[in-house]
Amino acid sequence: MQRIILSAFCLLCFLLSFGQEFPKVQKAPVTIQKHDISFVDDYPFLENATSSETLKWVEQQNAATDNHYAVVKKKYSSKSKIQEYNDLSTNSMPYKNGKYYYTKYIRDKDKPASLYYRKTLNDQPQELVNPYRIYKNNNVLLSSFSPSKSSTFLALKMSLDGSDRQELRFCAIDKVTILDDVVKNVKFSNIAWNEDKGVFYKKNSNKVVFERDSTFQLYYHKLGTNQESDVLLFDATEAQSDFSFLTKEKKLIIIETNKDESARNFYTVSLDTDDFKVEKVIVNERLASSILYYSKDNIYYSSAKSDWGEIRTFNLFDRENDKVLIPQIYNNLLVDTNFYEDYIVAKYKTEGRNFMMVYDADGKFIRRFDVPHNMDFDIRYFDKETKELYVTFYSYTISYLNYKLNVETGKTGIYLNDYIESKPSLFTFDHFETKTINYKSRDNKNIPITIVHKKGLKLDGNNPTLLKAYGGFGVISGPSYDTGLLYFLEKGGVFAYAEIRGGGDKGRKWHQDGMGLKKKNTFNDFIDAAEFLIQEKYTNPTKLAITGGSQGGLLVGVAMTKRPELFKVAIPEVGVYDMAKFNDYTIGKFHTDEYGNPEVADDFKAMMEYSPYHNIKEDVNYPITLIITSENDDRVPPIHSYKFAAKIQNRVAQKNPVFLKTQLNSGHYGKVSNYNEYLDEKSEFYNFLLYHLNQ
Questions:
Q1: pTM, rounded to two decimals
Q2: If DSSP states are collapsed to H, E and C, what string results for 224-271?
Q3: Which end of the chain is more exposed for a tag (fewer CB within 10 A), N or C?
Q4: Are 509 and 368 in contact (CB under 8 A)?
Q5: Is 104 exposed, middle or buried (0-12, 13-18, 19+ CB in 10 A)?
Q6: Contact at 8 Å (CB) between 166 and 158?
């Protein structure tokens, strides 16, 4: 039955207000009973994302949103200014992997970036891989690459349509030639080389794109052969466990985590021969931990017993020989570790500040490097001859600054060469004010929040403000340089990022206090951040917008349905909104530890109390909303966004406009494959934001 209809009255009102059509879709209610909870799902048919009916409705929704973007653009058109900021920003230095230095460059703004390499850091870059030449596809993306042991070959992971399911291709580096080998259905996989002979990879077996994920098999591909002859080494299909793997020192190491994430098994495979015999060396390791590194049969890890992060080590063949190499530093979070032959460089975060500590291979402290306030950094490589770390610093408002840091002498200096040139800064370093402070949650916890605005901005409660957070999976936040945000700040905007519970910004317990039955703390912390910004006169409810992606999209969905009166605008991206069914699709089944298991009564009840789709009330006018998703997102499928949009839109009480934008030929990260589409998406976001916050 044709469900897509246009209500004449609603259409007329919408045309008068916003100059566009407002697509409608008829309800097809289904009553669901689960754990003594009964609810009606009005739009289950939208879960069929590829039906002609759904596709037609999505097309109409996109047309309506694009029409509104055109109206908005007449008042706010940020694209040219963002492009100018991009052109004037500095770039990070190349990243060394194996023998060579690699950088991506944009040759054509309508086509994907190409990969270039240098043999020395001061060489002129040479084009190595042009994805468009391989596929003749503007949407293909080189998502990652890995050189073989001697840097003879380069394995390339290619996303053809934004999906997490990708292809492997191979390049002979010295010949700058793409090999004939094609390995398909690679998903959630690193690339582990067997010397220069071939690669190990995870293979996905899904027959239907958005069904529950089936990435359970580890294969080996030998260069110069067809994928049909690839060898299956490890199969976790029956156990439905997750696993990671790496190769080093002529060994393949497989680390399997059981379905409920309570134990691990460790396996080794000798690569001296081609029979690849898998041997289990540790069974049911119960100590939950983060694996950091492997060398000479030693596993380096951070134990769950350490809230802030430590570095421990044990021998694969002598599990009882376990020791602390670098103890935790209380109130300083271990964010990352880099292991070199003679050094361990640890990255730490404390409120509003990052720093690095250098240790020798035995864990003896050598020195500390403090990072300028409110800046983050990436280590690009380590030169073992000169003992220098090559590091790129950046912040929300300062583009990339490249430095050399000598780990032995402590000497530091900016790095420039013939191709990494000095540029004047876009703004003086004090043009914007960035501060990290704490606000109190409703249960009296100190929640860090970073606030950015132009220096001297009058804080009178009338500033357009964007609040963002993530709050899940122990993810640790950090600044990212964003020229679109610069445009927003230059227009008088305030940006705030809250490090709420569920994230990992204050250690493992910070995550644990925002997961499962405690997930409500995550949402309460975010709402409390909004109230703090209003109370402290940064903004008011008619000037406040919220945004977030993925888990952050769920966060925005909960906040806008729980406290709609706090917000003028909500922009959730690629979010999870139907918590009753989240585990039925793609990787949702792996997230029951984060959210709870819908098959467990207490978990289901807790999730239904905040599930955005199920908490939409018939008599509430929700904020102006822009729901953004991607048609090929097989991490958080777009059906969540479709149902959420349909239910909010199709109510008499909804007077504020609710837009749905489905990015075509893209996945979880949106339009990132070519520059022009990326620029369009970013400018549309900030145009929409400023237009509605300043009405």
A1: 0.95
A2: CCCHHHCEEEEECCCCCCEEEEEEECCEEEEEEECCCCCCEEEEEEEC
A3: N
A4: no
A5: middle
A6: yes
Residue 32: in which H helix or E strand, if any?
strand 30-34
| Rounded Cα gap, residues 96 and 338, in angstroms | 14
Q: Helical H runs in 494-635?
A: 508-512, 520-535, 551-562, 592-595, 601-608
Cβ-Cβ contacts under 8 Å for 262 (sequence gap 6 or more): 286, 288
The per-residue DSSP string of 404-434 comes to: EEETTT--EEE---SSS-----SS-TTSEEE
Exposed e or buried b per residue across 372-387, where buried means at least 16 C-beta atoms within 10 angstroms of its C-beta: eebbbbebbbbeeeeb
Cα 4 → chain centroid: 34
Distance CA 403, CA 356 (A): 14
> What digits encode the pLDDT tens for the residues 21-72?
578 899 999 999 999 999 999 999 999 999 999 999 999 999 999 999 999 9
**C-alpha 292: how far from its chain's center?**
20
Pick from 544, 396, 540, 527: nearest CA to 465: 544
* Bridge partners, residue 439, by sequence: 447
- Pairwise CA distance, residues 534 & 625, whole Å: 20
Enumerate the β-bridge partners of residue 318: 315
Cα–Cα distance measured from residue 356 to residue 511, given in angstroms and rounded to the nearest whole number: 23
pLDDT digits (tens, 9 = 90+) for 179-230: 999 999 999 999 999 999 999 999 999 998 899 999 999 999 999 999 999 9
Exposure class string for 118-132: b at 16+ Cβ within 10 A, else e: beebeeebeebbbbb
Contact 98, 45 (CB under 8 A): no
Q: How far apart are CA 408 and CA 469, in angstroms?
A: 38
